[in-house]
Write a structure and sequence with these properties.
This protein has 3 domains: 172 residues, FAD/NAD(P)-binding domain (3-Layer(bba) Sandwich); 120 residues, no CATH class; 121 residues, Guanine Nucleotide Dissociation Inhibitor, domain 2. Helix content is 36%, strand content 21%. The chain is built from 17 helices and 18 strands. Strands 1, 2, 9, 10, 11, 12 and 18 form a 7-stranded mixed sheet that branches. It has a 7-stranded mixed sheet with strand order 7-6-14-15-16-13-17. A hairpin with a 3-residue loop joins β10 and β11. α1 runs parallel beside α11, α4 crosses α7 and α4 crosses α10. The longest helix is centred in the last third of the chain and has 22 residues.
Length: 491
């Protein structure tokens, strides 16, 4: 078969964007197809009744000199502006307010200043955290370090073995084991901080989180966390235009319902009403969705991944335009709230607020846009009928409103509000059951099985938050670039 393209990328989330852009940079013939009319997937900026909202309440990283997004912006002269926030995040509970400042020492100083703080043990914990983060973060800046291992990559990693030593002892063990080692399990401010950050990065609390992955994720605020002016969708569009400038073909409003493998030849992908041929197909999708579209439901590797994803989360959302309080400042803000530190960090007890910059994305410059999210249990949703699911989600959203009213009352002057749920994400992104956030990175050695790669059907590839290196916009984009390199090696 004389293929139309070297690769067709299905889905314009940041995993798909990263894969498509790198392929085009290396001269491959690429087509990117997306079911929506705009890019970004779950990390998009969308319009509703004249105002623009972030699809998810989250921070974005990877914008320091030499980091992946910064490199793409500069290489392709993208019309993307961003602002470094300090602090990138503020955590509030009934008992404390903590600023996660860009300067890591400023964050540590806040813990050490708290009454009864075990200063010596805190310093030992954060020293380990910094060493682990220093060992793992370069893989998101230099994707040639990411698995699967080749002889060349194995050699490069062998030169880095002294940096990996702090990881070896804790691989497969929960973050909680480190707190026990340093006698910090009773220091509630640190435990609350770790639980809150793990829940939004590795999708589970400190008692379950895989220690090395969680320790690295704690560096997120110190590694180029920014606010993209106009919303993260501006970066997604910048990547689309760069792809088109390199000769890539982009098709929006083109849902892919079927892709079939022609033995020994390549793939035929039906996008919208048109069929296209390609040597490789890259799915920016959940493994179960990719398997269904590609007719690979019997593939053992995809079934195993799908089973892990199904134990994950969706989100309940509030999208608001609000009247800002006096003295709010002009910059965007991210605020994390925990109403009861003894209860699970989900279902409205723990919420994340992303508040837009002054005059950004709103028709009335006196208002500010706000995206609010909390985790909800997909396994719980499966036990309920439609009425029960609706009641559950509405109860969670009421809890979200109460948490904001208690811990961030200055942001409760609401001009307009609409809501979202797992059903919204399913309809919007096409993700089964509205699952978002990827696979929870619970303790266990299974997270390292991708070091040697996965066995996929010929020409089939997967990117996104369910695939190593995991959650966050930066991680899925880096993973997309890594998959692109595998495709290029097979050309």
């Amino acid at each position: 078969m004389s293929a139309d393209f070297d690769a067709i990328v299905v889905g314009a989330g940041f995993g798909g964007l990263g894969a498509a852009l790198h392929l085009a940079e290396e001269g491959a013939r690429v087509m990117l197809v997306e079911r929506l009319q705009y890019p970004g997937g779950c990390a998009c900026t969308f319009e509703h009744e004249g105002d623009w909202f972030e699809g998810g309440a989250t921070l974005f990283s990877g914008f320091e000199e030499g980091q992946l997004f910064r490199s793409w912006i500069e290489r392709h002269s993208m019309d993307v502006e961003f602002e470094h926030l300090d602090p990138p995040l503020e955590l509030r509970t009934p008992h404390m307010v903590l600023e996660a400042r860009r300067d890591r020492q400023a964050l540590r100083d806040q813990f050490e200043a708290l009454p009864g703080a075990p200063v010596k043990n805190l310093r030992r914990f954060f020293a380990l955290q910094e060493r682990v983060a220093a060992a793992l973060w370069p893989t998101l800046e230099d994707t040639t370090l990411l698995p699967p291992l080749t002889m060349r990559r194995a050699l490069r990693h062998s030169l880095r073995l002294p940096r990996y030593w702090p990881l070896a002892r804790w691989a497969g063990r929960p973050l909680w084991a480190i707190l026990e080692r340093y006698e910090l399990t009773e220091f509630e401010p640190l435990v609350t901080w770790l639980d809150s950050q793990c829940q939004i990065t590795v999708q589970c609390g400190a008692r379950e989180a895989e220690a090395p992955i969680a320790l690295a994720a704690l560096d997120y605020h110190h590694r180029g966390a920014v606010h993209v002016k106009g919303g993260i969708g501006q970066l997604a569009w910048g990547m689309v235009r760069a792809l088109e400038g390199l000769g890539g073909v982009v098709s929006f409003g083109a849902p892919v319902k079927r892709a079939r493998r022609e033995p020994g030849e390549g793939w035929v992908v039906k996008a919208g009403k048109e069929e296209h041929t390609s040597r490789h197909v890259i799915f920016n999708a959940l493994p179960q969705d990719a398997a269904r579209i590609a007719g690979l439901e019997d593939a053992a590797s995809l079934r195993k991944m799908a089973a892990r994803v199904e134990d994950g989360w969706s989100a309940a959302m509030l999208f608001r335009t609000v009247r800002p309080p006096a003295g709010a400042g002009a910059s965007a803000r991210h605020v994390e709230l925990v109403r009861d530190t003894e209860r699970p960090f989900l279902e409205g007890n723990h919420v994340f607020l992303s508040i837009g910059a002054e005059g950004e994305g709103v028709q009335d410059p006196k208002l500010r846009r706000m995206t609010v999210s909390t985790h909800i249990s997909v396994p719980k949703l499966r036990t309920l009928d439609d009425a029960g699911q609706r009641e559950y989600v509405e109860t969670v959203q009421d809890q979200m409103r109460e948490t904001i009213a208690q811990l961030a009352p200055e942001w409760t002057s609401i001009a307009r509000e609409f809501t979202g749920s797992a059903r919204t994400f399913r309809r919007w992104t096409g993700r089964s059951e509205g699952l978002v956030g990827g696979i929870p990175r619970r303790a266990g050695l299974s997270h390292y099985q991708e070091v040697l790669g996965r066995r996929w059907p010929a020409g089939f590839h997967l990117v996104g938050d369910s695939v190593f290196p995991g959650q966050s916009t930066l991680a899925v984009a880096a993973g997309g670039r890594r998959v692109a390199e595998s495709v290029l090696a097979a050309r």
